[in-house]
Amino acid sequence: MQDYTKTAPKSRPLVSSARLKKGFWLTTMMLPVTIWLLLIRYLPMFGIMMSFLNYRLPSRKIPFPRNLLHSEWVGLKNFSFLFSADSLVMIRNTLGYNVLWIFLGLIISVTFAIMMSELTRKFVAKTYQTMMFFPYFLSWVVVAYFLFAFLDPTNGMITQAQRRAGGEVIDWYNSPGYWPFILTLCSMWKNTGYSTVLYLSAITGIDRSQYEAAAVDGATKWQQMIHVTLPHLRPMIIILLIMNVGKIFNADFGLFWSVPMNSSALYPVTQVVDTYVYRAYTTTGNVGMSTAAGFLQNLVGFICIMAANTIVRKVDADSALF
Amino acid sequence: MKKFLSLLLAAMMLLAAIPAMADSPVEITILLEGNNVTDDAAVLEQLNAYLAEKIGVTVKPVWGTWSNFNDLALNAVNSGSDEYDIMFTCSWTSNEYAPYAQKGAFVRLDDPDDNLLAEYGKELAEALPAILLEGAVTDGIDGEGIYAVPGFKDFAQMNTWDVNVTLLEKYGYTLEDVEKAGFYGWGDIFATVKAGEEAETGETFYPFIFEGAVAERNVNLTPAVAGDGNSVLSYYMNAEDAAQPGPNGNAFVSKYSTPEFEKYAKQMHEYYLAGYIDPAIAIGETATDAWRNAQNTARYLISTEVSLYGYEVTTSAQRGIQVAYIMSTDSPYIDNTSVQGAMMAISANSAHPVEAMKFLNILNTDAYVMTLMNYGIEGVHYTLNDNGEVVFNADARATYSPWTNGLGNVTILPPQEGQGADFQERFAAFYAGAKKLPIYGFTFDKSSLDTEFATIVNIKDQYALRLFTGAADVDTELPELIQKLNDAGIQKIVDEANAQLEAFLAD
Amino acid sequence: MTVKANTRTVKGNHSFRLNQISRRTEALFHVILGLFALACIIPFLFVIIISFSSEDSIRTIGYSFTPTAWSLSAYEQVFKMGDQLWRSYFNSFLITIVGTVLSVAMCVLYAYPLYRKDYKLRGFFSFLNFFTMIFGGGLIPTYIICRNLLGLSNNYAALIVPLLVNPFNIIVMRTFFQTSVPFDLVEAATIDGSGEYNTLLRIILPIVKPGIATIALLTSLAFWNEWFLCLLYVTDRSLYPLQYLLMEMQRNAEFLARNSSMLGAVGAEAAKTLPTQTMRMAVVVFIVLPIACAYPFFQRYVIAGLTIGSVKG
Fold first, then answer.
1. CATH classification (class only), B159-331
2. Which site among C146, C246, C261 would you substitute to test the B interface, given the most B Cβ atoms closer than 10 Å to its Cβ?
């Protein structure tokens, strides 16, 4: 395969009829996913309408979808619960954690991936990778129990140890101060393995001859990383960054709900948009309000992604999403 | 978009046009709550043979569990699917009876134009106490009326203190001491028992482990307000006679800003600081586990229970101690949340409302149907002993145990082992003596205030449990909470609730 | 970053450690990666230990790496589920295998043209895919379409179809094509008269094997861990996947806890029939084990590039 690459001739203009034919066959490849997207993703988008309605339930007399026409138009009323004086905290938390974790996650997993690719004992590298991927299998509920096994106010391993040592016993679930740190730790612990695998498989895709060429030219390992590895990782890094920027107003519900054991004393540091909306939804059962919240999250994400993509396109058109 | 809508419309009309076979029995699908049923084939075979002959109906139960019922119901109602003809509903989960009746999810059963209840449910209407049907009346989409059949079960509230009498007597106290001292005077008893137990076992012992919301209800006599599932509002009951207006008259107040609440929270905090209360009950996810675990292992002195008739016999046997329940009110009281605790509604999307009503009628009045559906087949799932009491066959019961209270009229069931042949008479007599709250029948309709409510619930969730269980520093956190609630417009909610209550009482 | 060059070995072309990091740096890497890897695996060992701990031990000393007494009762309880357990195991495997094969095939087919610089509609299809990552109709409208229009209710399709496409995986796959397949290769194949499908299957796919393995791993994980679809579309117990059994236990417990002030004694009685904490941990072990066994198999491909690199060095 490698040899084939090397002997491949430089690109040449192709005849236009061949181009059309080629386009046709490529388009047929798109069909399965396109049909799926249209049916399962695009069709339900009529639901965005519900953000602006006082949704009337369908019945035999007024079945779906006619009930939508009979629902009262309430404008932006469904959105207003997201903008009370109290909601500032959850907006701050959502954005704050996301920004911090995007950069921390990027740095840690790219570093780990590069470190892993440099290990000479491949079997050991493989073992590390297998182990690091493990937390990704576990649900947040299970993670919450792990953490609780350590921090439980009566039986937890850490609290027991503190009690035995005679020192101050920290009431973890009532001390908000520790939690930004704990949550960050949990998030990194669970997701690093996953993104490391992504980056590592991108690194393994890099043609080794490029490193050899660089080494022959006298490039140090560090220089090789800067000039060979990182440029190859760039498309992946940019894509993941743009994706994450798009989710900047969304939070991992399981992490913020289960891991702090829904302890109310911790809300100042654990309340995020998704938990706020969930609490509102379970008490009011108002479909319009939860749809509105989802729509707003999408809108913010969309604007952020478009902005990020525009910037990327200006700098490096090839790496842009579209 | 438009094209799709019309397409869908056409498809639905087509489906509706397919005529039902006239001769074969109509199949009714019921969505139920809280079951543990994995094998219903034998029961359904018997049941459907009987039902087909009697009323020309067969049933297909969907045995919802605690874990999936709410989602199934919510999706069915919101999507207008016709998959369920009958749905369980109640006033205490997120699938609330009154809001759904109001939004049009259920058929009005006593609709003057099409009175299903009068026409196909005569026996049912006679079998239920009038007070139950009265409590089922709600302001729904087709006017004020009955939108679901209430279950005839333990329909009065008994909020109690659960006392470990065995442990109490070990330290020379009696039940009367606890009763006489009252919540504000338990400090000495806690101190003695805590010190004694810790000296004996060398482990930390918390004498006071309870459920926060119920403890507050017990002390301040503030029953849950229907429609306010989140305890933002308080109605203060009359301590001497639950049927009379309370100290504030028939009015609601904001729960956290009363002097009574502050006094309660301060006392709790004192107990908490003294180490009488397990910190685990102040954390949302661990509270119930910690508290139930303490009860089941008898490692508590005083706890709380929303109890029911004859329950101390059961728990005493299970825990191996003597358990006593001290009622916080003079008698059990009837409020909407208990009457609407388990109901069955006919879906507004059902294609067979008449057959559904016929089935509800026979289910609630025919002991054979109710017993078969609830307990299974005699000789397979259970046997009757000499007293006519039901003795379960554990193996068969493991694959077929529906939630009894979720199925309707439990008073036509045979008694279970140990309850005594006359259990149902005593049970009915006990609840017949319950008193109606003056605000009975009122359900707060918060739909016009969803926005304020969403904010306020998020605020109060941050403080409520910690205040209820004494973990919060009352001097700093309570004023903070009150301030935030005021800023978020709690007064609007209180005023609206009072205006609605006034209109209700004037009727 | 403490990566230091080992320029001497690079210059001395015949050295043992050709173009590798120094031994000291590598040792440091081992410490950092090793510690982190260990921290990742310990909780799972902890779950296994808890699942073998006796209830008494948990009541007295809580969760511990060294319980006072061991017990098989959790597993006995799990096996009491009998047919349901094996049935659910089977369902999980079926859904995962069928779902992963279909999903990966669709993903590769969609991602490949997006990589082709010379494909005119690539911008449009990119956006078509990307847009769905951001905007969705929400739960209820999706439910209405899937259930009422597509008939996804109480069948295996309901557990597979809604999860078939992950827009994110498509983008990741496209990026794999970009990073590891030189465009010259495609052009050379075209000039040699190779059809599009032939080029993709014979020439391109072998190169992106690590990428496919990664996507397959992520996809199979998604199918294996899925329970929400089951909650939405399935009430027939014979179709339940294993993950849903665990979630059912968890959610039963949560529901009873949340509503205890309303359910009172009824809830207390219901709670007594719930599976114990150790049993839930045992189910977690059942769920995680197959992935733990299958993962090294995938990893062979994921790491394939690494090995090639070292051989060539």
1. alpha beta
2. C261
